[in-house]
Every structure is written in structure tokens, then in C-alpha cells.
Amino acid sequence: MSKILTGILIIICLVILSGGCASKSASTTSPVVAVSVQSYADPLTENVLLSLAKSDYAGFSADFDQSLKNILTQAVFNELGNQVKANLGEYQSKVFVSSTTQGANTTVLYIAKYAGEPAGVVVTMAFQTVDGTNYVHGVNLDSPKLRGQALDVTQLRAYADSITENILVSLNKNDYAGFPRDFDQTMKNVEVKTAFDSLYSLLKTNVGSYVSQEFENVALQQNYIVVRYLAKYDKEPDGVWITISFDNNHQVAGLYFDSPKLRAK
Predict the structure, then answer these.
(1) In what order do the strands lie in the sheet with 210-221?
(2) Which of 80, 133, 181, 223 shows the greatest Cβ crowding within 10 Å of its Cβ?
(3) What gap in Å lies between CA 130 and CA 127, rounded to an integer?
(4) Left if phi > 0, otherwise alpha if psi is -120 to 50, otherwise beta: which for 20?
């Protein structure tokens, strides 16, 4: 199975499973499994991104399985490289977000920093293990600029950072009055006091106290702006991913917490 974003030649979930791409909700990894996955996924992904930046097809495809080599040919690679350089600029770094495993297939999500894309780039890597060897089975790069939807990240963060900070600080202080201040009406209806209390207890018990947050990436999804932050909590060394959605009125329409300890719980 292959999907190509319109006019971009970005490869998504290539030949992952006979039934299609693995669902993130189908099988989430424990902290121990995540570390094991990273031991091979991190260097293989770094090689793919660096080789793409260097226009080195031999290095780029060195760890591909045959099905991906058949699809991501030299010609496709050349066009992909041109699109990435024109829209994203130079590759700088990446951070691991999460992994999902089903049988011999593993999908790993990263957020990469590129010099020309302040919104961040979501990198999805698919891996397949055959006879003990890990092969790259799919590659996907996604960002607002690649979609032709460049965002003013400075303007966006002018409200998103402070709203997110208020939510996390209020939650950390068990301040229900401050917590829903910027929620839209639907969220206010959902986040009743009992739900707030459960979330407060879950975070305090499993990841501890909130310390700080760092912006990682932003994307457009339908009529919403979805922002990811990596937050530091004193009992979660891997950090907690905060995904927060804003409507056109800068009100919070969705909020999601994710970390290895929270997944294990």
C-alpha cells in the first residue's frame, strides 16, 4: 500500500501490512520495548535523514527492504530531495516521540527540525524484522510547508505557548478554576470536575510534578491547529508529550497527554 501527498512524492506507510498501515491504537509499546526499538530505529532513521540531506541515494536506501527499494527509486529520491531542500532547508536534528509494534512490523514517530521549517517536520518510519535483521519498510515526511500550508509559527506561539502553560500549571496546582479558562464550550462541557480530578491524580501518581514545556511542532488538521509540546515532569525522564488543538478563535478544542509511563499505566 502506498499513499503520496498531492504533488510532493512523500512516501507514506509503504507496504507495511497486507491489511494496510498499522493503527497507533492497535498496539502501544511499553517503556522497555520503546528503548529496544530506539536502539535500531534511531540510527537507521538518522542515516535516512542525513543521506537525504546529502543527496546520497546509496546511503539512503542501504537499509531498505526490497519492496521499498522497488518503490523509492533513484528518480523518486531525486524529486523527494528537491522538494525537501526547497521547502524545509537543511536537516538539523530529531526527537523520538513513540513507537507501535504489530508482529514483525514497527512504526516509529519522530519530530525533526529543519532550518527552513519552524513548524517542525513529523517523520514516520516503518520497520520490518526479517530473520533478525531490521529493514526500513516505509518513510514519510510531513509538515505544513510540504503540504503547501506554511504557518506563521511566531504568531501562533504568541497565544499557544501561554495557553498551554496555563493548562499545565493549573493542572499541576490542582486549580480547576484556571484549568479550563481557554477551553471551547464543548471541552468545558466534557472536562467536568470529576474528569479533571482523575487526570490530576493520573499525572501526579505516574509522572510527578510539571516542570516546563518546549514547543516541538504544529500542523493543520481540518479547521484546527494542532500543536505538540514535550513537557518535563520530575518522575518521567522521557518527558510527556502534550498535544493540544486550537480552533479559529484560539480556544482549546482538544488536549492529550502521552508518555511511556502513562502508556504503561
Answers:
(1) 210-221, 224-233, 236-246, 252-258
(2) 80
(3) 10
(4) left
Cα separations (Å) of 201 from 31, 144, 209, 223, 265? 21, 36, 11, 32, 12
Buried/exposed code over 34-59 (b: 16+ C-beta within 10 A; e: otherwise)? beebeebbeebbebbbebbbeeebee
Look at phi and psi of residue 101 and say left if phi exceeds 0, alpha if psi is from -120 to 50, else beta: beta
The residue count for the chain: 265
Residue in this structure with the C-alpha cell 508482529, named with its chain if needed: 103
Q: Cell numbers at residue 3, please?
A: 499513499
Q: How many CB atoms lie within 10 A of CB 106?
A: 25
Question: 153-264, what's its fold?
Answer: Nuclear Transport Factor 2; Chain: A, (3.10.450)
**Domain boundaries defined on the chain:** 3-142, 153-264
In one letter, which amino acid is 202? L
Question: Under DSSP, is residue 247 helix (H, G, I), strand (E, B) or coil?
Answer: coil
Per-residue pLDDT tens over the stretch 74-104: 999 999 999 999 999 999 999 999 999 998 8
Cell of 140: 514519510
Q: Is the domain 3-142 a CATH 3.10.450.50 member? A: yes
pLDDT digits (tens, 9 = 90+) for 178-226: 999 999 999 888 767 888 999 999 999 999 999 999 999 999 988 899 9
